[in-house]
Amino acid sequence: MQTKSDLRKEARARRAGLAHPDFAARLAAHADALGIADASLVGAYVALPGEADPHLLLKALSLRGCTLAFPRVVARNAPLAFHHWRPGREFVAGAYGIAEPAADWPVAYPRILLLPLLAFDAAGCRLGYGGGYYDRTIAELRKGGEVRIIGVAFAGQEVAGLPHEAHDIVLDAVVTEQGLTPLPREGRG
Questions:
Q1: 65 phi, psi to nearest 5 deg
Q2: Is 34 helix (H, G, I), strand (E, B) or coil?
Q3: Residues near 62 by Cβ (< 8 Å), separated by ≥ 6?
Q4: E strands, the chain, where?
Q5: CA distance from start to end of the chain
Q6: Where do the domains of the chain lie?
Q7: How many of the other CB atoms lie within 10 Å of CB of 97?
Q8: Distance CA 185, CA 23 (A)
Q9: Nearest-CA neighbor of 69 among 58, 78, 60?
Q10: How far is residue 110 CA from its own chain's centroid?
Q11: How far is Cα 14 from Cα 162, in angstroms, rounded to an integer?
């Protein structure tokens, strides 16, 4: 089997050809399918170039009264810290040049997370960027109870299978421009 590093290179190359101008609008059309209750606290992300961009989906959730929280890199090999966002707050350039909340924004503990990814499979395995930030963060958040994990992707990011290690988080669902796909829950730890 290929290494995760090799899989990441392939996934980045495949993803580069999947972007299309109406993706964000098509993704947002599936906001109701997510089953997120009005006024929920939702952890999200600011898309990097080439990533599946959830900004219109987040706008739709905000219009339903949902509060959004975004991650900030605290330190290498540490969980991410989520912070409450409100309209008008500007992100700062954080670790790795990623737009993130300022450290003084109020801390948040979302129970629903929308995650970026490089690839996913039908078993709910997610190929991330290799830093383990979301794996550590979700493990930490789960100490406080159930956390629903929804991958955000282009439909073409689905692959036949991915390696899975004990620390790797498993997705509950994936939302793409084609809709929401709930993923099997059996065998999850």
A1: 90, 5
A2: helix
A3: 68
A4: 41-43, 67-72, 81-84, 92-93, 99-100, 107-108, 112-115, 119-120, 126-127, 148-152, 173-176, 179-182
A5: 23
A6: 4-182
A7: 8
A8: 28
A9: 58
A10: 12
A11: 15
CATH code of 4-182, in short, is 3.40.50.10420
Bridge partners of residue 113, in order along the sequence: 43, 149
Q: In terms of DSSP bridges, do strands 173-176 and 67-72 run parallel, antiparallel, or are they unpaired?
A: unpaired
User: Quick count: other Cβ atoms within 10 Å of Cβ 108?
Assistant: 19
The DSSP code for 106 is P
The two structure tokens encoding residue 45 = 């992300």
Quick: pLDDT tens for 61-108.
Answer: 999 999 999 999 999 999 999 999 998 999 999 988 899 999 999 999
Amino acid at 158: E
Under a CB-based contact definition with an 8 Å cutoff, are residues 111 and 145 in contact? Answer: yes
Dump pLDDT digits (tens) for 17-36.
999 999 999 999 999 999 99
Residue 54 has which token pair?
Answer: 């959830």
What tokens were used for 179? 């809709």
3-class SS of residue 89: coil
Query: What is the bridge-based pairing of β-strands 92-93 and 81-84?
Result: unpaired
